Amino acid sequence: MPTLHELQSDFRRFLTGEASEQLLRLVDGAGSRPESRLSIYRNNMLATLTAALKATFPVVCRLVDERFFDYAADAFIRHNLPANPCLAEYGGDFPEFLAGFPPAGGLAYLPDVARLEWAINRVLRAPHPAVSIPLTWLLGQADPAQTRLCMVAASVYIASPYAIDTLWRRNQPGVAAMEFVLEQAGVYLEIHGAGGLRITHLPAPVWTFRARIADGATLGTAAAEALAIAPDFDLALALARLFEANLVSGFR
């Protein structure tokens, strides 16, 4: 008799498409094949998780149509089961999956659109500190260049060679479909969710400065990378605006 852990492992593998003879022998088919009876659970799981992905990536779904999205979702789900019970948190790996999904190979912009939708999902659910951190806090640091700032969770930074924010806006519910030529515009986006969704275009050096801080770089490293892009980058102004925008939640 298999242990509970072995049964759970066999059932998990069945959900992703692998039928264990050990598991099937224990199922009373009640007149039907055991695999057919168990398939009810697999089909329900696939339908539920596909619906969750469509809710998080509606623009991706609209761009490729539902049949293609269902096909891609099925392939993704079978190798990426949820790690926690909150379906709103499911799908973080879907953009990277699309980047390596051969049938979507001709849609180079699609993974970045998915990254934008995942970022929107993140920032709209993220908490935002009620009290902002003033710039004067930085003055108390022994070496400000070695300081690492904590950015608020309700902000995400995405760069793309495509105008993915325009593509996202033109594919919202209620917006009539129209012919659109997606140019390689090179966008640097700040997605912010506190007080309502805001998608802001930033100059490349400012985006680099903020994105590197969000990634955990020191202020010195973030400033150096911004200056490498634009030697006239105004660090003092960039710092002031960073704090004025209430994007800093503390210091590491």
Provide a descriptive summary of the structure in words.
The protein has 252 residues and is mainly alpha-helical. It has eleven helices and five strands. The protein has helices spanning 4-15, 21-25, 34-56, 58-64, 66-77, 94-99, 110-125, 164-169, 204-214, 219-229, 235-244; strands at 149-151, 155-160, 187-192, 198-201, 248-251. The chain has a three-stranded antiparallel beta sheet, with helices on both faces. Strands 1-5 form a two-stranded antiparallel sheet. Helix 4 (58-64) packs across helix 5 and helix 9 packs antiparallel against helix 10. The longest helix is centred in the N-terminal third of the chain and has 23 residues, at 34-56. It starts with a helix and ends with a strand.
Order of the strands making up the biggest sheet: 2-3-4
* General form: globular
Domains, number: 2
N→C terminal distance = 52 Å
Query: What Rg do the Cα atoms give?
Result: 23 Å
Number of E-state strands: 5
Structural class: mainly alpha
Task: Identify low-pLDDT runs.
Answer: none
Order of H and E elements: HHHHHHHEEHEEHHHE
The amount of helix comes to 40-55%
Brief summary of the model shown:
47% of the residues lie in helices and 9% in strands.
Keyphrases for this structure?
9% strand, mainly alpha, 47% helix, 3-stranded antiparallel sheet, 252 residues, 2 domains, 5 strands, two-stranded antiparallel sheet
Topology record:
Elements: H1 4-15, H2 21-25, H3 34-56, H4 58-64, H5 66-77, H6 94-99, H7 110-125, E1 149-151, E2 155-160, H8 164-169, E3 187-192, E4 198-201, H9 204-214, H10 219-229, H11 235-244, E5 248-251
Antiparallel strand pairs: 1-5, 2-3, 3-4
Helix pairs in contact: 3-5, 4-5, 4-7, 9-10
